[in-house]
Structures are given as C-alpha cells and as structure tokens.
TrEMBL record:
The keyword Kinase applies. It is an enzyme of class 2 (transferase). The keyword Nucleotide-binding applies. This is histidine kinase. It comes from Sphingobacterium corticis. Residues 129-286 form the Phytochrome chromophore attachment site domain. InterPro entries: BphY/WalK/GraS-like (IPR050351), GAF-like_dom_sf (IPR029016), HATPase_C_sf (IPR036890), HATPase_dom (IPR003594), His_kinase_dom (IPR005467), HisK_dim/P_dom (IPR003661), HisK_dim/P_sf (IPR036097), PAS-like_dom_sf (IPR035965). Keywords: ATP-binding, Kinase, Nucleotide-binding, Phosphoprotein, Transferase, Two-component regulatory system. Its EC number is 2.7.13.3. Residues 507-717 form the Histidine kinase domain. It catalyses: ATP + protein L-histidine = ADP + protein N-phospho-L-histidine. SMART domains: HATPase_c, HisKA. GO terms for molecular function: ATP binding.
Length: 722
C-alpha cells in the first residue's frame, strides 16, 4: 500500500458516522463506529477506494452515490443527501466537499411528524413584527423539535452576549435578559457556529467515538455536525439541566449577530429534515431581523439627518473645528445618549455634562495613544478595566473615543455613567474536579459558572449610537480633508505671490539703478558749480540717492536668500571674527572699543552666509555702543546639548523690551536709535539666513544697559544637502 498505516485520531460525536476521501477517491479518514457496523479491520477501509467500498457494502445504492460524488467533484452540485439501506436499517447519507476532501456524514434515519404539521408555527415567524419575532422563532423551533426550552442570544460588539427572548415549556430557571461575559463567545466559538447551518448534540452525556486519520492528511473535521460542541457551552447547558442541545446561527451582514439555542432535558434525537427546517426558519428570521434593523435605522437617520447637515455645513464654512463642535454640543451629547462629553482640538479641551476631570481626560487620551491606533475606541466597561491607570475616582464607566488626524489632534470622547447589572461569569475548574478519565467521554463540568453583580460598567452602546458617531467621524474626515486641500491651494497662491514679489524686488533693485545713477551724477555735476546754501541742497540730494541705493541693495539681498542654494562645511570662526573686528574699527573710526574674545568654536555652514551673519551682528554691537565710554564688546561660544551657541554682548543703547520681536521685520528699527545710521534691514537678513541654516537667533536687552545676541547652530552635520 502506498500510504503509511500510521494513524492519529480526534474525538467526534457518536450519533453518526463520518468518512473522508481525497480527490483521488482514496479514503483518508473514517470514524471508529463504522467498524462496529460492518465488522472489518481498519486496513480494509483506510487507504481503499471509496467507490470500491460503496460498491461492496451498498451494492444496490452504488449508482446514485457514484453520480453524487461525480457531481460534487465536478462542482455541478455542492452537496447531496441520500437515503441508503444497510442491515435492515435506513440511513441518511450527506455528501459534501470540505476543503480538499469529500466529507461523508451518515446517521440513522429517525421518523418524524410531517412538515405540514408545523406550518402554523412557521407562518407565525413569517408574519411576525419586530417585537414578537424572536419569541415566535423560539416557539416554532420548540414545536418542530419537541425540545423543552429555546432562547435567542444577541452577541454585542463588545463581546457580551445577552438573552433577548426565551420560551420554556416547563418551570425552570429563566435565562431571559441574562448577560454572559466575553469568555462565553470567543472568536473561536464564533467561527465554530458560523461554519455550519446548525450545531447539534442530542446527548451531552453520550460517549464520543474517534475519527481515525492518516497522519499525513490535513482533515478539517470542524465543518462536520459530528464535531463536538465547545466544552464551555456543553458545561453551561448541563448546569441549567439540559441533556441535549441544538444551536442555529443568526447572521446579519455576513457576521454572527446571535444564536438560537434549543435544549431538551432528556437526551433526544431529531430527524435531519427537522433540523434543516429549523435552520431555514432561523435563516428567514435573521433576514427579517436585518430588514427591521434597516427600517429602524432609516427612521433614526431621518431623525438625526438635519443635525448632521447643519454640522457639516457649519464645519465647511468655519475656520475653527473646535468652536463649531462646541456650538453643536447639545446634539453631540444627547443623540448617542451620553452623560458627558469632551472635545479636544490641538490640546484645547472643552468638557460638558457628567465627565471625568480635565486631568483624567488627558490621562485617558495618553493611554489611548499607547493602546490603540484605531480612530474609534468603544468600551462599556472602561472603568472596570482601566481605572487603576487613571488618577482619582472616575465618575464615568463607559467610553467611546473618536480620534482623527495624523497626530490624533481632533478628539471627541463620550462618557456614560455606571449601570449595575448581573452577568454570568465562568472559570475553569481545577483539573482534579473534572471528568477527564477518557478522551472519548465528555469531560462534564470542566468549567464553573456564577452570576456576578457587575459594577464599573455602563449600558451597552447600541447600533444607533455607533451609527451616529460613525457619521460624525465621516463628517470630520471630509472636513479635515477639504481644509487640507484648501490650505494646499492657499499655499500655492502664496508661492505665486512670492514669485511675483521676487520679480518686483528684482525690478526695484536693478531697473531703478539706472535712473538713480543719472540723478546721482547730475547732483555731483551741480555740486562742482555751486557753493554755499545751494551746495548744501545738492549734498542732501546725493545723500538721499545713496540711502535709496542702500535700501534697494538690502531688499535685493533679502530676496536672494530665498532661492540661494549652498553647501555646508566646517568653518573656523576665529579668523573670520578677528577680521570683522578690524574692519569695524576702521569703518566706525573708533579705536577705543574694548573687544574681548572667548572660545570661538568652528561652525557647520556656508562661509559667506556666516560672514554676513557675524558682520551684521558685530557691526551692530560697534554701531550702537560707540557713544559709551568706553564701548565694551564680548564674543564667546560654547556647546549646549547638540548645538554650538555664540553670544555677542555689548554695553550699547539697548532695545526696549516691547520692540524685541519687531526689530526682525524689514525696515523696523528700535525707537531709541536717534541719529545712528541704519536701514532696518540687517537683522531681517540675518534671521532669513539663519532660518535657511536651521539655526536660531535670540536677543535679550535692557535699554541703556546691555544687549546680548545669542546665535544657536547645530553642531552635527544634517543628513540633507542644501
């Protein structure tokens, strides 16, 4: 035989038999109870051709079986249900494809009432309005199955399960309105219930059988209805007195919305047709519930539509998102039925209603920044889970947080107060208290259950609450995107205006030089032929022309700094500073200035730009301290963090504190300069150059006492090249 005889096995329920064949029709898995029926050793089945086995043991029914198998493999049909006879008994054979295998599920046929008997109950479901839908579904399933109790569970978005409807046929502990913790319906449990139209365990106490599998075969037996129910759910059913159980998934929008559980208090098997009928009715009820939910949502949409339109309109015309949201605080607070709300825009926090303190809200936002990147965070038991992380007592238990923007700079938090309720809790029992004597016997009561009074949690946020908040999210996203595009458009316009300004600057600096030169030359010629009072006016004319030329040259220098590209290098500053000091002594005709130098560290930058910076700053120190006796100037540098800092100090006229920022504007000079020459361009030029170098300038001063100019340069070469 080409395959190894080594096998492994997994437990399955014993009310039916299970077999898997591969696409080559080789039998690769078989349940052990088949061998009890046909009394042959394992090697007579495993590894054999499924057609040969069917022909040998089901001779009279072989042709329809072969036809069904061919149709499924050719994907003409998805599954086939056949009745077959063996050893004077009738069996129901269900053939279907499961991943890369063909699944053969077989169980003994059970007689049942005619389907027509249940049509009255089924019609009640078909004609149900929303309030009675789930109650009628429970009654219908009990009527079809003959079980003792049925209840519908809703699985909320936060993982809590709640019983919405129940129909017991005898006196028992009611489960209506009971809630179950998140552990009752894990992601694994949800997947289990959504992979089949129903899940069925007719006898929770019956021993299991085993599915024998070739070790090199990957069988997905979880799709079979013989696959055991989750241990936790079997244990809970046993705890409430059930001996058998069947469950039907209730789907909505492709997701598991809830479950219908039916229980019997004695072991009971029901016919496949009854199970399929219940599954069909449950499917219809799910669709009807979805339709009712959509209608209810549409009515809710109509109610809130005008509020949303008003908010969107005002946001689109407002320059301040935060102010607009605050203006609409009443709707934002009342529609999702929140007790409190906080609006935080760029660290500006506004709080309304019953909410945590501003300090606590700040801590909550910091926590969310670390915990999740999702824009929408929903938790009805936030205080229960995270109160220890927040300073002080939280007066709110439930939270929804909406955070938008690249840095989450737009945040809205909704708060709800505590709502005390009861909830089923579960925990695994110690191993010595569980029944695990055999892998093929259900380990009854592996979990303990108790009802706990829940505090530190709020009422659940419902579908309407979430719909409204998601609408707010969409409106804010659209608004922020539109404003970003608008800002981009404004920036482009500014670029165009700057380009026009540069052209105007060029015109002023170059095209006007020729007529100014004519005026200057004419004044000089006139000065040669005039004397006395007339010569005085020609001199004033020449000086005015010179001033205009200086201003135009300065404006042109500023314009050039915007587009000039340069490369940086390490520049030794000591020689440059000493040369500038010598020049200043000559230009200012002041030999008395006392200049002292400290350490002059090298800088990373463009040599010409550095010369312009220090020439302007040192020149100002000389110019504005020349009337002191004696003028004193001190220049030093030092390292601070990742920067090299230069300080130029003088004992000159100083700058009024109210004018310290204005002096960086073009043509702005301090009001105490008197008759000292200057154009008000030098510091504007220095700041422009420093901005390009990613450096900074700071000035501190006291009028008639001192001025300190502090220049800070990065002392590590940046990665980019300018």
């Amino acid at each position: 035989m080409p395959r190894s005889y080594s096998t492994r096995f997994v437990p399955i329920q014993s009310y039916g038999m299970l077999l898997y064949s591969d696409m080559s029709d080789r039998i690769v898995a078989v349940s052990a109870n088949i061998f009890d029926l046909i009394d042959v050793p394992t090697e007579k089945i495993l590894g054999k051709n499924v057609n040969a086995v069917a022909r040998a043991y089901l001779r009279d029914q072989y042709n329809p079986i072969k036809s069904a198998l061919s149709g499924i493999k050719l994907q003409k049909i998805t599954n086939k249900i056949l009745e077959v006879s063996f050893d004077n008994a009738t069996y129901v054979l269900h053939i279907t494809q499961s991943a890369r295998h063909i699944q053969w599920e077989c169980e003994k046929k059970i007689s049942a009432d005619k389907v027509e008997f249940h049509m009255e109950r089924i019609s009640q479901v078909l004609e149900s309005n929303f309030p009675s839908l789930w109650d009628n579904l429970c009654k219908t399933v009990l009527s079809i199955t003959g079980f003792d109790r049925a209840y519908v569970c809703r699985i909320h978005d936060n993982g809590v399960t709640e019983v919405l409807a129940e129909n017991p046929t005898n006196k028992t502990e009611t489960l209506l309105h009971s809630r179950f913790s998140k552990a009752f319906m894990s992601a694994e449990h949800r997947k289990y219930y959504t992979t089949s139209r129903y899940r069925y365990a007719p006898d929770l106490w019956a021993p299991l059988t085993k599915l024998i599998i070739w070790k090199n075969e990957d069988i997905d037996q979880a799709n079979s209805n013989l696959y055991p129910m989750p241990q936790l759910h079997r244990d809970f059913a046993t705890r409430v007195g059930a001996k058998g159980i069947i469950a039907f998934p209730l789907m909505s929008a492709g997701k598991l919305w809830g479950l219908l559980f039916a229980q019997c208090f004695v072991p009971k098997r029901i016919n496949l047709a009854q199970r399929q009928l219940c599954a069909l009715v449950s499917l219809y009820a799910s669709k009807k519930n979805g339709s009712y939910s959509n209608q209810y949502l549409q009515r809710f949409q109509t109610t809130i539509n005008q509020s949303l339109i008003n908010l969107r309109t005002e946001l689109s015309h407002s320059a301040n998102i935060g102010c607009t949201l605050v203006k609409h605080k009443n709707a934002l607070l009342s529609i999702p039925q929140a007790d409190g709300m906080a609006i935080c825009i760029d660290d500006e926090l506004n709080v309304f209603g019953t909410s945590p303190t501003k300090n606590q809200i700040t801590q909550i936002l910091q926590y969310l920044h670390i915990k999740t990147e999702k824009s929408l965070y929903i938790e009805s038991d936030f205080r229960q889970q995270f109160a220890d992380l927040i300073e002080g007592d939280l007066n709110s238990a439930g939270l929804i947080a909406l955070r938008l923007g690249r840095n989450r700079e737009v945040c809205i938090l909704w708060f709800r107060g505590e709502e005390i309720n009861s909830m089923f809790q579960t925990a695994p029992l110690p191993s010595e208290k569980t029944n695990t004597s055999s892998q093929l016997q259900f380990p009854v009561l592996n979990n303990s259950f108790w009802v706990k009074t829940m505090v530190d949690s709020s009422g659940l946020w419902n579908d309407n609450d979430l719909y409204f908040i998601k609408c707010i999210r969409n409106i804010l996203r659209d608004t922020m995107l539109a404003k970003a595009k608008q800002q981009e458009h404004i920036n482009q316009k500014l670029i165009e205006l700057n380009n026009e300004l540069e052209m105007l600057t060029f015109t002023l600096s170059h095209d006007l030089k020729n007529p100014l030169s004519v005026v200057k030359l004419s004044a000089q010629i006139l000065a040669r032929n005039l004397n006395g009072e007339q010569a005085k006016w020609t001199n004033m004319l020449s000086e005015g022309v010179a001033d205009i030329e200086n201003m135009l040259n300065s404006v042109f220098s500023i314009g050039k700094q915007k587009i000039y590209l340069y490369e940086k290098n390490y520049v030794p500053l000591a020689p440059m500073v000493e040369r500038i000091i010598k020049q200043m002594h000559l230009l200012q005709e002041d030999k008395a200035a006392e200049v002292t130098l400290g350490a002059l560290l090298p800088l990373w930058g463009d040599k010409n730009h550095l010369h312009q910076i220090f020439q302007n700053i040192i020149g100002n120190a000389f110019k504005y301290s020349k009337n002191r006796h004696p003028p004193k100037i001190h220049i030093l540098s030092y390292l601070k963090d990742s920067q090299t800092v230069y300080e130029i100090r003088d004992n000159g006229i100083g700058i009024p504190k109210s004018e310290l920022e204005q002096i960086f504007h073009v043509f702005r000079r301090s009001t105490n300069v008197g008759n000292i020459d200057g154009t008000g361009v030098g510091l504007a030029l220095v700041r422009r150059i420093l901005d390009r170098m990613d450096a900074t300038i700071a000035i501190s001063s006291e009028e008639n006492v001192y001025t300190i100019v502090q220049l800070s340069f990065k002392n590590v070469p940046p990665s980019e090249t300018h």
